[in-house]
């Protein structure tokens, strides 16, 4: 094991960027967060105290030139992911890019194409659930044959309400709920069923699209403890992940019954997965070992997400042939 | 409260018929099971011991003429439900008919039409979940506003594997899984969202239809403890029914973890609901009080079930206009 | 199986008496509740409607003379249990006597002595948990060796607050909490570990005895959902009964967390056990089959309960020798 | 917040020592593990790789002289705790000492006395449960009045079987199960009920002391998933901590039922508490802020643990007067 530390920089110090930066600075023993980029002076000010050993740049290209920099976390807004990831790869840096690579299939593919020209670099899309202890245990059990042949996968991802209206504004650029949020569920399906799985058809339904209730419904999905959960049904059993969510191990026995509190947001649920992600990405860069999954899956996930979004909007089911090409409804 | 007992007869002494007969004979204080019909001499023999106070007929029409008979339970094979229910109504008997009335929408409707000419009779389709304490509590909580405005209903019904091949033979006449089995889920949606709800579209997917694994898959859905469960998601909360199934209140702490056993079949789960059904149907007949739900919903449920079955077979989504008429895909 | 019905009478139509009477009248197919006794005219009036086929006596001795009466349920106040049970045995009736036989060991023993002179009679003390499906399943699992050698038994029984002050008045004659309430836990220990177990010592502690908070504490034990539960720890595993109590199968997902409601009192928890008790007692009487447990255990349970009550009051641990005789502390 | 890092040394690199060392080296951003002590050359060899930036000493006194050393973790065998803690205090180092300070009340008190002469030093006994998120949430809820007035505290601590015979050898010096293991439960009681609580009496029972099954029983307490748990019963509710233990969030649905796996040992359960402990101890040293609890409680805990051990051995209940002095049984 090399005792050398990985010199890494973090692009973006917003909500997720700040978390990545703190994880690499304080909870990733083999990494040094030497640089960070933010266009926001307030975030730069925050970093002066929170990240005392990190040089903060207001310009992304400047950060890439930080002496000795070996790797970059891209955790800016989704619209910037692909361009910044491509620039970093071209500057010969390893890249951990937040999901999705892009809301466009073509642009996502361009990141993969760029990376394929630099096979010595580690380029990973940050599907954090892949590093979660529960999802990993479920995968191992499935892989060991505990549930026979996996047949049905069911998964839901939710996000916490931001009453500031953040999501409504965010929705303009997010690519829609399937590309932004449920991309985690799609990625999990690709993981559990294998990236070589062929999608035959997709269909989406939602009440936000057909009623003037978008905001209120989002409120619902969050305020009430509708939580992330997944299940894999096999021919001999079922694995459920987070069907019974739990914050701490405390139960309250009250006159109204027995009550468990649950994590208030996805970071409360997945905090340790992000730390594991940081440590495993760092190890892969330093030891030149394999990343746990392929970058190309990130394009497949966007492709499926976009088809679901289209189905949601059109109300139609979308069919594919065995090579993955779309079949027009009139030709069915 | 009348102290008079309801004289009732049970058509069918097979799996469900025998249960109904025993429930009316032994667990329905206000009913007397005076008659039963079965074409099967073995079942007649069983009844001689199990139902000592009941006259057993090998001919349905004979049973209808039993002196003083006031009501009939129709619990024969699905293909006989409608005809026997109609005969009983015409003979001026109250009727509790097992679900579905028929696998055909038209035939189901003919039962409703016949009943509507005899408004003094109580005619009910046996949707047993409507009598389950858990489903009722969930309905009450929803009705009291506990989860805000109900928005999404999700429900699954499974059946236990019969390794004798019963289901494969049964499938020939059952009308398919949506009309036979998931009709419970459809009925629950009509209950929770109201019978006046308008269906906009239906779409079904399944792996049994597209793979030569029907039997093995059925095996799976049953042998493994995939259990009935439902959830109602509202704007301010969620109600889950049987998300954590439980047979007894025992938990086993073993080296492999903590384990709960669960009911081995739907009757283990719903036994008490069937007893409640028997008692409430009896009370409605004796006291001329209202049945808890309308017969016409049973036609709607078959209609939706048939559309789902068609969607499963064709791979297409099916759309309806606001009056419930189908819209051709080409006209969308 | 005899088709004859057992003619039974119920002494007491108070809280528990009324439940027993209704269970034998309506939920015990092989029994006829032909007679009942209550000294209370209001209860007699209630019975006129609720038990239309039952003759109600205001005098216990009169009830015993009811033509054809074969068996008696004793469900009056604890202080009357022994005398009424003895009278019934002497009148050659089978007896199901509510727990405890008496708060006095000697008087309890006198019931056993009387019964031993009439070995053809079925005389049982109503330890209802012995008929509960969960406790039975746990016993079976233990008996099959699922947890190795049973080593530790832990059990708690609670009762629901009666804000009328019922319990405070009741406490005057109840024999104290260990003889009245925790006698269930003691009986369970005798069941699970065997009636031949030798008690080495007992010690009791409680906050009700040392603080002026008796009533308020009782309130606590009830209002808050401190529920009955038991666990049997063995050398290879543990069985927990009702560690996670559950009323219906509904879970509420609310902003404050996930909540289950639980049965509001012991009858909500044990209703079906009482019905099973009624049916099994009836079957034993009609078929002259063995009762599931011996009457003598009821004396042992009172003996242990009295020792615990004494320990609670004196603050001392009480020791016994191998024959069950007490050892004075000064002789240890 | 000071950006300076705390220079700390770890005495002991055995089971717990190695964990503390790794936590301070890799998961405590404000600490530098500059030194370590172990008398074991194999552990020194392990440290060369695992703790590349730490100087390892084979002599404790040498380690205390490490340049700039400010604080010491004492994680050696229990018999060395007190002497090493006292030496460190005398050398003007902050001390985090593993529990118990000693198995002797007097020796434990001598650590407190030494520390009281150096009030500028932070000296803490490592009761790790005090840093656990679940125990803290339960304390906060109790403190906010969620369960009314706390009345009963029930708690159990178990350890994992070490089939090497480690525990049997260890037992010679451990001070017995109450001082070594259940001292956590005692400390929790002092925390939840307040360190000023007066103990009136203690009584202990156990099957290990009276049967030749010590080893096998220990095996049991561990191999089977008897897990740590606590509950606080108040006048208006109950708080349960880890009544339903959980390793990951995965549930297995199998033919035998629904199963959760649980953490295999106490470190799996409390790993994050140890990390929090390391970070909070470091912050208190650097910022000269208050430790979360007083050192003197560690003496009280040993005192109560010794009395319980004595009660276990003698079979007697032990009484104390209001000042904490023992009352002889003959004087009661």
From TrEMBL, chains A, B, C, D:
GFO/IDH/MocA-like oxidoreductase domain ranges (all copies): 135-221
Q: Provide the protein name.
A: Gfo/Idh/MocA-like oxidoreductase N-terminal domain-containing protein
Q: Which Pfam families does the record match to this protein?
A: GFO_IDH_MocA (PF01408), GFO_IDH_MocA_C3 (PF22725)
Q: Which GO terms describe its molecular function?
A: nucleotide binding; oxidoreductase activity
The UniProt entry, under SUPFAM superfamilies, shows: Glyceraldehyde-3-phosphate dehydrogenase-like, C-terminal domain, NAD(P)-binding Rossmann-fold domains
Family classification:
Belongs to the Gfo/Idh/MocA family.
Q: Does the keyword Oxidoreductase apply?
A: yes
Instruction: Give me any GO biological process, just one.
Output: NADPH regeneration
Whose protein is this, by species? Xylaria multiplex
Q: Which UniProt keywords apply?
A: Oxidoreductase
GO cellular component terms given for this protein: cytoplasm
Stretches assigned to the Gfo/Idh/MocA-like oxidoreductase N-terminal domain:
7-124
Under the heading Gene3D superfamilies, the entry gives: Dihydrodipicolinate Reductase, domain 2, NAD(P)-binding Rossmann-like Domain
Which PANTHER family does this one have? Answer: BINDING ROSSMANN FOLD OXIDOREDUCTASE, PUTATIVE (AFU_ORTHOLOGUE AFUA_2G10240)-RELATED, NAD(P)-BINDING ROSSMANN-FOLD SUPERFAMILY PROTEIN-RELATED
């Amino acid at each position: 094991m090399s005792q050398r530390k990985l010199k890494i920089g973090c692009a973006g110090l917003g909500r997720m960027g700040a978390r990545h930066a703190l994880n690499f600075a304080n909870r990733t023993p083999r990494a040094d967060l030497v640089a960070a980029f933010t266009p926001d002076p307030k975030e730069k000010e925050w970093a002066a105290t929170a990240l005392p050993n990190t040089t903060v740049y207001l310009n992304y290209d400047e950060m890439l030139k930080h002496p000795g920099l070996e790797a970059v976390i891209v955790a800016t807004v989704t619209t910037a992911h692909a361009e910044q990831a491509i620039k970093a790869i071209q500057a010969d840096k390893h890249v951990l890019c937040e999901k999705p690579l892009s809301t466009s299939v073509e642009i996502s593919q361009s990141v993969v194409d760029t990376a394929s020209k630099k096979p010595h670099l580690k380029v990973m899309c940050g599907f954090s659930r892949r590093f979660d202890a529960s999802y990993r245990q479920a995968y191992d059990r499935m892989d060991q044959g505990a549930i026979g042949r996996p047949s049905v996968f069911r998964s839901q991802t939710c996000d916490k309400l931001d009453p500031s209206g953040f999501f409504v504004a965010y929705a303009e650029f997010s690519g829609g709920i399937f590309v932004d949020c449920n991309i985690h569920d799609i990625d999990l399906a690709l993981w559990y069923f294998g990236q070589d799985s062929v999608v035959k058809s997709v269909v989406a339904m939602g009440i936000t699209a057909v009623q003037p209730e978008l905001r209120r419904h989002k409120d619902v999905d969050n305020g009430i403890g509708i939580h992330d959960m997944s299940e894999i049904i096999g021919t001999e059993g079922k694995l459920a992940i987070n069907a019974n969510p739990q914050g701490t191990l405390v139960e309250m026995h009250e006159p109204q019954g027995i009550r468990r509190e649950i994590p208030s947001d996805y970071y409360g649920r997945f905090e340790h997965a992000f730390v594991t992600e940081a440590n495993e990405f760092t190890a892969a860069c330093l030891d030149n070992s394999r990343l746990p999954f392929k970058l190309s899956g990130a394009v497949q996930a966007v492709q499926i997400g976009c088809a679901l979004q289209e189905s949601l909007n059109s109300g139609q089911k979308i069919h594919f042939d065995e090579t993955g090409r779309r079949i027009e409804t009139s030709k069915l």
